[in-house]
């Protein structure tokens, strides 16, 4: 997707449904177009004779819509292969700006770097692979955020100015709220769910994992820091 004639002044959002694999979104203000790389993989358990058929069974559909004054880029993946556990798609998108995300994914990680706007991610376990979620951004997040997975850790790493009425729910794991640049208030935990507020807290931030840990980190240069133990 090339830049509009007037540049990337208009908000741009993503709407992605990936039946099996990973999704990575990287915001880089130095690029001039939205670049999508889709890598299709087939299980090594598939016979070499039919592996190419399995990969060719994958369909990737893209389209661009204009909704309420912003551009929405839509991506859908699917497969006609008999066992979708054996074929998957790793999506990587690099773009100048991202002003909102809706992602449905299974059986792989979802990683969002430098994004802004409302964030909605529904990830989960598939084909023995968990569905972790990681957000790292320096953008000020003041919109609703929902990050949910049936299996995998969730890391939400933001910087000063981001607000939220937080709900951290790790059914079979632990919740943590670590901040060096913002002071959480009204912190409460009943042993299974932790709630807290930061700033005016007009936007809800829900992080929920059925099997995994849930972590909120406030720090300077949140986008750059990668915890190698994740």
Explain what the structure shows.
With 230 residues, the protein is mostly beta strands. The chain folds into two domains: 11-111, no CATH class; 132-223, no CATH class. Helices cover 4% and strands 50% of the residues. It is built from one helix and 18 strands. The protein has one helix spanning 48-56, and strands spanning 12-18, 21-27, 35-42, 58-67, 70-79, 87-95, 100-105, 110-113, 118-123, 133-136, 145-149, 154-158, 164-170, 175-179, 185-189, 193-198, 204-209, 214-218. Strands 4-5-1-7-9-11-17-13-16-15 form a ten-stranded mixed β-sheet. The radius of gyration is 18 Å and the shape is globular. The mean pLDDT is 94.
* Strand residues, percent: over 45%
- Measured between the Cα atoms of the first and last residue, the distance is 32 Å
Mean pLDDT: 94
Alpha carbon gyration radius: 18 Å
Please identify the structural class as seen in this structure: mainly beta
The spatial strand order of the largest sheet comes to 4-5-1-7-9-11-17-13-16-15
Q: What is the helix content?
A: under 10%
Parts with pLDDT < 50 across at least 5 consecutive residues:
none
Beta strand count: 18
Please specify the SSE layout and strand pairing.
Blueprint (H helix, E strand, L loop, with lengths): L11 E7 L2 E7 L7 E8 L5 H9 L1 E10 L2 E10 L7 E9 L4 E6 L4 E4 L4 E6 L9 E4 L8 E5 L4 E5 L5 E7 L4 E5 L5 E5 L3 E6 L5 E6 L4 E5 L12
Parallel strand pairs: 1-5, 1-7, 2-6, 2-8, 7-9, 8-10, 9-11, 10-12, 11-17, 12-18, 13-17, 14-18
Antiparallel strand pairs: 3-6, 4-5, 13-16, 15-16
């Amino acid at each position: 997707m090339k830049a509009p004639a007037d540049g990337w002044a208009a908000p741009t959002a993503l709407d992605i449904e990936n039946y099996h694999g990973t999704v990575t979104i990287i915001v880089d203000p130095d690029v001039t177009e939205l670049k999508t790389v889709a890598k299709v993989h087939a299980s090594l358990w598939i016979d070499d004779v039919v592996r190419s058929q399995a990969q060719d069974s994958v369909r990737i559909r893209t389209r661009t819509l204009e909704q309420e004054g912003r551009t929405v880029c839509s991506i859908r993946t699917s497969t006609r292969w008999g066992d979708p556990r054996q074929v998957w798609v790793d999506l990587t998108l690099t773009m100048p700006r991202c002003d909102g995300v809706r992602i449905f994914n299974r059986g792989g990680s979802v990683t969002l770097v430098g994004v802004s706007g409302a964030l909605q991610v529904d990830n989960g376990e598939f084909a023995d692979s968990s569905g972790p979620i990681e957000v790292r951004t320096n953008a000020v997040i003041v919109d609703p955020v929902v990050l949910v997975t049936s299996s995998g850790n969730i890391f939400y790493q933001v910087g000063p100015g981001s607000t939220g009425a937080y709900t951290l729910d790790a059914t079979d794991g632990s919740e943590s709220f670590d901040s060096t640049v913002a002071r959480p208030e009204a912190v409460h935990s009943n042993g299974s769910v932790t709630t807290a507020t930061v700033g005016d807290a007009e936007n809800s931030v829900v992080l929920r994992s059925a099997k995994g840990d849930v972590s909120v980190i406030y720090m300077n240069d949140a986008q750059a820091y990668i915890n190698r133990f994740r």
